[in-house]
Amino acid sequence: MNNMLIIGQYVPGSSFIHRLDPRTKITIIFFFVFFIFFANSLLSYGILTLFSVGSALATRIKVSYIIKGLTPVWFLILFTFLLHLLVTKDGEVLFRVFTYPIYTGAIIQGTAISLRFFLLILVTSLLTLTTSPIEITDAIENLLHPLKKIKFPVHELALMMSISLRFIPTLLQETEKISKAQASRGVDFKTGPIKERIQAVVPLLVPLFISAFKRAEELAMAMEARGYQGGEGRTKLRELKVGPLDWVALLCFILIIVALFVTRK
Amino acid sequence: MKLKAIDITLAAMFAALMAVGSNITSFIIIGGVPITLTTFLCVMAGLILGSRLGALSMTVYTLIGLVGAPVFANFTGGPSVLVKPTFGFVLSYILVAYVVGKIVEKKSSKKMFLFAALIGLVINYFVGTNWMYYAYKFWASAPEGFTYKMAWAWMVAPLPKDIIFTIIAGVMAPRIQKVVSKSYIGKRSVA
User: Fold this and answer.
1) Is the pLDDT of residue A252 over 90?
2) Count of H helices and E strands in chain B?
3) Which of A87, A123, A253, B153 is paired with B142 by a 20 to 30 Å CA distance?
4) Mean pLDDT over residues B30-42, rounded?
5) 3-class DSSP state for residue A240?
């Protein structure tokens, strides 16, 4: 479980998509989410579907795993489709379910909207499937850099994210340890009246707070002892590099967008 | 705002605590309702870290969730949580921490801590439930039968436990604050 926590949804790999710079991926996804709303013909949807499914296959992650990652939204997609099927009354009556008429317009509308929904989720989840949270954090720091002008602490935010990611598994382990330690002293977390169980949270929380504060303090001291001065002039352990692969990906994406505008009605 | 090392590490720890708090069900079960301590912790973040640092810490929590770390309830994470109707609660934490911190910064008596904590809970429920209602309306274009009242009726179940924990937060925070202000952490720049 702890291993899963550090990497999240990330599936390590060495595919073309894995090796792209995280900034390239974020940029492409950002514009994809924007441009998907421009698709309005069969062919334009086809192109976007081809692009998304193609990229998903190019990650060489098991299809079943990708589909499993989409679980929370399957319901929404299906629900949207059914709702449009029942509510939209455009075009001719295609057939009747019992006596309820189903219109052609409804099927088209429903399919288009659920497809758009599906593609949106698929493409955005490809980012977290092929990029580790730490890499995305680095990319966010880099991409948000202009916000420094309005005094937004971009570097600090990114640093907080990496520290937080690093300490989540530690604190979870700690919580488990504390709950066992308190249980051995007779605190009952799982049974008993509600009032007692709410009270049982306090002996769990107080040591947890103390340990979190202690860690924060030690870490800050260690940082200061090593001369941490904030973002100015700091070098990085992981450097982001835009390579020829990224230019190829960007070019492909621009071609897809051009094709989208050519084929839309 | 110039942040010191201790500000950064504390805010990061609170974000990590939020991740633990949202999945505390794996350790304790109360009355069959899967509980989370996120409301409690986010109020604490506002009370102890102050408005700006508290809000920043909650922003960190939201962001690490969005980039794929499974920090939300039931160990979920990733960009697909954006379309979940309950995402409003996550977003409200940022505002809650900010407002709670702001109130305590104005006047920090024991009563004010409790008052701020309860205001935080109100904001959390207000933003979260409204978001949920409009999310169902917008994403799924929910049918006519789904009324505004129904959205609120769903929120009644976790309400008592949230009120209790918010009061605990309001009572506990000034004590922690007092201890903390005497230590190294207390010497940090107040953001």
Assistant:
1) yes
2) 7, 0
3) A123
4) 73
5) coil
* Burial of B143 per CB tally in 10 Å (0-12, 13-18, 19+): exposed
DSSP state of A57: H
Quote the pLDDT of residue B30: 56
Residue B78 has its nearest CB partner, among A125, A140, A212, at: A125
CA distances in angstroms from A244 to A19, A58, A248, A249, listed in the order given: 11, 18, 6, 9
- Please report, for chain A, the start and end positions of each structural domain, with discontinuous segments joined by +: 1-131+238-265, 159-234
Look at residue B189 and tell me if it is in a domain.
no
Chain B residues with CB-CB distance to A161 below 8 A: 12, 15, 60, 63-64, 67
pLDDT at position B15? 94
CB pairs under 8 A between A and B: 204
% chain B with pLDDT above 70: 84
Asked whether residue B188 is assigned to any structural domain, the reply reads: no
CB B28 within 8 A of CB B155: no
- Note whether A88 and A106 are within 8 A (CB): yes
Q: What is the pLDDT of residue B144?
A: 56
pLDDT in tens, B48-69: 888 999 999 999 999 998 888 8
Three-state DSSP class for residue B106: helix
Listed by number, the residues of chain B in 138-157 with a beta carbon closer than 8 Å to a beta carbon of chain A are 139-141, 143
The pair of three-digit structure tokens given for residue A6, joined into one six-digit string? 């550090």
C-alpha torsion A136→A138→A143→A146, nearest 10: 150
> Cβ distance B30 to B161 under 8 Å?
yes
**pLDDT tens, residue by residue, A177-190:** 998 898 899 887 77
Q: Give the pTM.
A: 0.85
**C-beta atoms surrounding B172 within 10 Å:** 21
Q: How many structural domains are present in chain B?
A: 1
CATH number of the structural domain spanning residue B107: 1.10.1760.20
Q: Give the separation between CA A219 and CA A236, rounded to whole angstroms.
A: 18
Encode A179-210 in three state secondary structure. Answer: HHHHHHCCCCCCCCCHHHHHHHHHHHHHHHHH
Pairwise CB contact (< 8 Å): B140 & A194: no
Identify the domain containing residue B167 by its residue range. Answer: 5-183
Residue B68 lies in a domain: yes
Asked if residue B162 belongs to a domain, the reply is: yes
Q: What's chain A's average pLDDT?
A: 85
